[in-house]
Design goal:
3-stranded antiparallel beta sheet
Length: about 230
Amino acid sequence: MTRRTFLFAIVILLAIALVCYIGYIVKSNLPSADDLENVQIGTLPPTLPDPNNYQYYGTLEEAVANNTLETSNVTYINEKIKLFENDKFAVLFFKSNVHGKDTLYAFKFFVREIDGTPHYSPPIVGANIMWAAHILSVKNGKLDELGEVRLSISRDSLRLFRIDDTKNFFWGISQSENAKKLKIEGQPATEVIEINMDGNAGYFWYFDDLKTTKEPIFQSLTEYKEGDFIITMD
């Protein structure tokens, strides 16, 4: 083997090693199988817990710090996104982090007035959507921007996070800037909030009270079927 051939072989081996190393780094930054549970939800029991069994805190930060939910066990708030509140319940949507990945959380609390100010129980129900896992779900399901909305709506249990049972509350997240023009059954979203998720723009949207008699059940997430919610983004 000539010196030139030998050096060429060494370069090739180093190049292969570098490619393998880069591949390892990329793979290690992807969510693991354990992380890819797209939505984790703590369901409420058939009857609500007794509000008197809780200690109440003067801030939501303290209430979250005392979280005991097993399915959504985060104890800190990175960024508040939206708070819904009345004299009985509060629901906070906020951003936190799981294994280095941005995650959208929803927590529901009891509210009690103490010394003229609202105080909050620890979370009584919680859900989280990891952004990286959400993107992977959309990709694997081959969903377009409307399919992504159908995916959110089909998680009917997420409607646990309304503070008024008389209202038809829906919410979700989207990768599409067109979410700013989202309409369901011809009704515009109550609000669309842009949030930074893993360095990319995401959009948290909600309908405070969608006027419809339809159920959030889709025959297909990839295309509209007669009887489904009519969803537009134009």
